[in-house]
Amino acid sequence: MSQSMQVSRADFDRLMVPNYAPVDMLPVRGDGSRLWDQQGRDYIDLAGGIAVNALGHAHPQLVEALTEQAQKLWHVSNIMTNEPALRLAGKLVAATFADKVLFVNSGAEANEAAFKLARRWAHDQVGPDKHEIIACSNSFHGRTLFTVSVGGQPKYSQGFGPAITGISHVPYNDIAALEAQISARTCAVVIEPVQGEGGVIPATAEYLQAVRALCDKHNALLIFDEVQSGMGRTGKLYAYMHSGVAPDILTSAKGIGGGFPIAAMLTTDRVAPALSVGSHGSTYGGNPLGCAVAEKVLDIINTPQVLDGVGERQAQLTAGLRQLSDELGVFSDIRGQGLLIGAVLAERWRGEAGQVMKLAQEEGLLVLQAGADVVRFAPSLIIPEADIREGLGRLRSALLRLVG
């Protein structure tokens, strides 16, 4: 196919594996917090590519970083390292709890590495019996067989043969349930500081502190899945920083590349040696292109101006959502942290989050859902206030159609 060949949304059904059901518009260009489709219609983007486009579309500094690196070096095998990877690793270590970094390509791969690291660490430190992983109900950790088994949503793991064993699930934000489940056989507890796919539910600081204490008591590792909540999304570089609770392993993806596929697993000097030479790897992990872009993303986001701005935009967006709810009665709760926001549908419209997403798109607005009952918002961290205002206006038009 040449680039000049005309394609349309109908070609998806003809050519692509049917594991997605994309909307009927086909985007061709993005700039900041706006997208344009093949027909030239504009959309305000409050979805952010599911919390990926942390700096919007085609940010000029990211375009510059990508094109500059593309003229130097795209890929080298992991037989050698490269300058962008080492610079990015150094900046991540300096900005977080971590001492060591492993680069991969996606959140699922980062979590896969985290779970393998936890099991190998426990195996080497204690023995093969210490291999159990505890996760939370309604959690989401990726789509590999291991990560869907750890994720607390059976719909994603059913029908793919026997699940990986040694995994259990407890209710989120419920310390008594975890206390009853954790044991000497537990190698790790994995938690999203803000449950994303599970409904945009933040963990309380008290819960995270209690989980940390239980992990220490039972010699288990604490893993924070910050694939969605990390890289400035909550108003701190990583959400764990709100609670003061440092994990042993943290996974970061989505926003870390601003749209370029890259992810990282961060860990400590105590744990990292368990992944010795040859024990794990990734062909593309840490490639110079991805790392050059992610370094620029980190440089821009990890500043008071951007991180403080997240809180200001959160206040504007949540105030607007509450105003719409007061007027139309569609939401029973507005929750979340920073610019990861969930609007819970009122009883009368439960199950209609997908319909809200569809109506919003028809009004020129991109939003998300987090389950059937929650409309999710994850816009650019630097979205202009004018775009938030206009986006809320378009959402109002969609909600007026919903309520009839």
TrEMBL record:
One of its GO terms (biological process) is L-arginine biosynthetic process. Binds 1 pyridoxal phosphate per subunit. One of its GO terms (molecular function) is pyridoxal phosphate binding. Its cofactor is pyridoxal 5'-phosphate. This is Acetylornithine aminotransferase. Its EC number is 2.6.1.11. Its main location: cytoplasm. The gene is argD.
